[in-house]
Specification:
By secondary structure, the chain is an alpha+beta fold. It has ten helices and 21 strands.
């Protein structure tokens, strides 16, 4: 949706937004922490104590990208301006990544989209691992022509750009939107859950599924980083939620992080930690969606540089299927073990459930909607996964179905 009223303006003119609202935590949904920076505030999806235990640059970047994070306002403003400083990713030799999108939701409906200019660029050379940071200026996203009445407004921040919030201006007072009593769904997963190649932040599959399920999303999907980290489990344990899901599989394979001997107790430990804070909360364990390159071939995943000359980035599996005998993980190995673990634990945990990710995206789906780079779904596939998850999890008889009196 392209909104003719959405733009990145120059100096404000007549009728411009003049009411400045402090950017405080009570205006944000989906963030676990808000860091003060030299420009403003930076939303994080891991708390500061957890970030201090992390040494991985990939996770540091992913959790700073605000997938599922949105400003939530009650206002009658007709103009909203948000100054931000973005950090955009770029990869040497790969096609430029599209600009991040801000989705404007008014009373539950998509009402506009826009992007900002300027900002920082973090360029990665995947052949060497080197990173170059290039600084840039603050930009402004502006939405005008909004209805002149009290309304609930959400601005979903780009799921794929680190976004420092600098200033919020409106042409009428704004206050935090009431939470409305909806159930909170806390979800953890990989880049597929983070948003990968979704069209916009409110159309990642978890955001769409949350909308269909009528719940508030806290998305802890971290690109490349769903690795059973204990600090992630503890952060989830300490986050209030009515529904919890963990999607496990692809990152453990494509990082070649652990063997089956370590995987099984790591899953138990992760679930044990979640249960410390959410002892009877519906808890859904989801295995990976279909990813043909890793169904029976271990990782790591590596870039296929032969396709860069054609302007395409693809990945391939660099492991050897014979290595499964030594405990190397594949998606089918993980699915079998997750199913066994959940069945074992569910004997004493009646609120624990398992969902095979191929029910969300399987062989027939891959034939119709193949993964463009062999790892990540496109926008249409995000919608399909969301529809399937909403039906299986939030629908009648599903583990997240509303409880009726």
């Amino acid at each position: 949706m392209n909104d003719p009223h959405a733009s990145t303006p120059g100096p404000a003119g007549p009728g411009a937004a003049t009411v400045t609202t402090p950017l405080t935590a009570d205006l944000l949904r989906g963030a676990l922490d808000l860091e003060r920076t030299g420009h403003g505030v930076l939303p994080h999806r891991l708390p500061a104590w957890a970030r201090a235990q992390n040494t991985d640059g990939q996770l540091a970047m992913a959790q700073s990208q605000p997938s599922g994070v949105r400003l939530a306002l009650r206002t009658r403003a007709t103009v909203i301006e948000l100054d931000t400083l973005r950090t955009k990713m770029a990869y040497v030799g790969a096609p430029p990544r599209p600009d991040g999108v801000y989705d404007l939701i008014v009373d539950g409906r998509l009402a506009g989209q826009a992007s900002v200019t300027g900002g920082n660029v973090r360029e990665v050379d995947m052949s060497t691992g080197s990173v170059e940071n290039r600084p840039g200026p603050i930009g402004t996203v502006r939405f005008a022509g909004l209805p002149d009445r009290p309304k609930d407004v959400e601005i979903w921040l780009p799921h794929n750009e680190i976004t420092e919030l600098v200033a919020l201006r409106t042409d009428a007072p704004a206050e935090p939107a009431p939470r409305g009593g909806r159930r909170v769904w806390l979800h953890h997963g990989s880049s597929v859950s983070h948003g990968s190649d979704a069209a916009s932040p409110s159309t990642t599959w978890p955001a769409l599924a949350a909308s269909l399920g009528g719940v508030d999303l806290v998305n802890m999907g971290f690109g490349g980083s769903a690795l059973l980290d204990p600090f992630t489990a503890r952060a989830m344990r300490d986050t209030p939620a009515d529904l919890v899901s963990v999607k496990i599989g692809i990152n453990l394979v494509n990082t070649d992080l652990m063997r089956l001997r370590a995987f099984t107790p790591a899953v138990h430990g992760f679930l044990d930690t979640l249960r410390e804070g959410h002892p009877t909360t519906p808890l859904l364990v989801v295995s990976s969606v279909l990813c043909p390159i890793h169904e029976d071939t271990p990782g790591p995943s590596v870039p296929d540089f032969s396709t860069l000359s054609a302007g395409k980035l693809r990945f391939r599996a660099a492991g050897d299927p014979a290595e499964r005998a030594a405990g190397k993980l594949t998606l089918n190995v993980i699915r079998d073990e997750l199913s066994r673990i959940v069945k074992q634990r569910a004997a004493e945990d009646p609120h624990l459930y398992y969902l095979d990710g191929r029910e969300l995206y399987g062989e027939a789906d891959f034939a119709e909607l193949p993964l463009p780079d062999q790892l990540h779904p496109d926008a249409a596939t995000h919608r399909r996964i969301a529809d399937r998850f909403a039906a299986l999890a939030f629908g009648a008889g599903g583990p997240f179905a509303p409880v009726t009196a």
